[in-house]
Amino acid sequence: MDLHPSSSTSSDLGLRRKMLVFLIALLASSALSIAGASPTTNKKLPALVKLRVEGDVDTIFEAPVLTQGHNVTTAQGGTHHCDGTNFGVNPTPGPTCTSALDDGSLHQRRFIWDGPFDPPDFNFDDYLITSIGGVAQTDTQFWGILLDFQFTPVGGCQQQVTHGQEVLFAFDAFSKNFFLKASGPVVAKVGKPVVVTVIDGTTGVAIEGASIGGVLTDANGHASLTFGTVGLKKLKATRSDSIRSNAVEILVV
Ligand SMILES: *[C@@H]1O[C@H](CO)[C@@H](O)[C@H](O)[C@H]1NC(C)=O
Fold this sequence. Notes:
The chain is an alpha+beta fold and 253 residues long. It contains 2 helices and 19 strands.
C-alpha cells in the first residue's frame, strides 16, 4: 500500500523501471561481450615480474616490470610475436620472459636489446638474444635466460611467466657455477651488526667466499655487516665464478 502522493510515486516508479531496464540491458550486453570475446581473444593476464639483467661488469636492469604477451621488435630480427605461442609451446597467448625484457627496455628506457629472429640453425620461432644494454655475446660467452633461477627449457618468447616470478637475463650464464641470491634484514641500526645470507638460487646451497658489503661470506653463506651511516644501502653479492646476486636493500637508521 502506497501512502505517498500518487504523482511522485508514479514518477519514482517510472524512473526505477527505466533504471532497471537500463541495468538489465547493461548486464546483458557485458555478459554477451564477455561470452562472445572469450573464445576468440582468450589471453592470459599481464604479470608483474622481477626483471633483472646482469651484464659482464655491472647490473643493467633490476626492477619490477608489468608485462603481457605482445609483438616485439629488434634491429636484427624485425617484429614478431612474443607471447608464448611461439613454436606452439603454449596454446594461449600470455606474458613471457622476453616480453618482460622488452617492457623493461622500452617503458623505462634504460637499455636496448637485439638479436636475430629464427636465425639459421635455430628453427624455433624465437629470438636469439645476442646483446642487451650494449653487452654483446662473444664466441664463448652467451646470454642465458633463467626463470626463478632455473634455465628456461625453451626460448624467451616461448617461456610464459606468472605474477611474482623472477626473470633473469645473465651474460656468460653458461660458464658460471652459481647464480647468487642474497637476503638480509629490511632495517638495521647504525653500529649494530646484521647478518646477510648468500645462497645459490638454483640449488639453495650456501655460498662461501662471496663478497657483499665488503665482507666475504662464511661456509654458511653468512656475512656480518655493520653500517656506520644512516640511509638506504643496496648490496649485491659477487663471486668470480658466479652471476652476481639480486640487490638487498637495508634501511640503516
Ligand atoms: C605481430 O607480428 C606478427 C608476425 O609474427 C604479424 O603477423 C602481426 O601482424 C603483428 N601484429 C601486430 C599487432 O603488429
